[in-house]
Amino acid sequence: MDCLTDDLPLLELLCAADDVRVPGERESSCPHENAPDAVTDTYVVDGGRLLLTLWHGRLHEVIYRTPAESMEDAARRNDRLFAHYGQGDGWTEILDNGFGRTYRRTDQQRYALWSYAMDITTFGTMGFHQVKW
Asked: How many other CB atoms are there within 10 angstroms of residue 85's CB atom?
């Protein structure tokens, strides 16, 4: 059974900003509130919104605000996203705070957050994670 989140765009972290292609309309662009020199662009895509953070000319974070219709759809979407952003490496759960879960890729180069309360999934580079927090 297909759902809107089955076809979400998969992007490449650390690709050049000029190479980022999102099949959707850019809704807004604004400076990142916690990271100097970073800009967050919001795109409307089938299934919701993508927030892309560009920092030092490269894509460092992708936030999927793409709520699924069921827990099964959310699990299928997350399996696909974690496999793509894992790039062959696994993920280790670091924290479950009752609102969501934090993960680190096994090579410690990427982080992921899944807010199960809001069904928002984030993937980013550890370099950017250290700056934004």
From this structure: 23
